Please model this.
Amino acid sequence: MVVYCYVEVCTSTLYKKKSQENQEPVSFHRFPSDPNLRAQWIKALVEGNHQLNADTLPQNPKICNLHFRMQDVEKTGFMHLRLKPKSVPSIFPNARRER
Ligand SMILES: [Zn+2]
Model:
């Protein structure tokens, strides 16, 4: 199954990870179940990524680790990353520019 990152204009997929072996590990993180934290994630997408559809989430959205700061993730294995509690995505390298 191919997993896509929910962040608009992010090109990470799980499929890509397997085909490009020398890349940094990419991991995908589900939206938090805590409603407050979830709201912060959505806010980050709206404000940081100017993502218009952020309040209409698909069934099982995931965000890849590229949108989290180094100090927000910890390595739990060779290719496995885990988010620290209360981490909020904050890095949107390809965010649309506001006009
Ligand atoms: Zn991503």
Remarks:
- The chain has two helices and four strands.
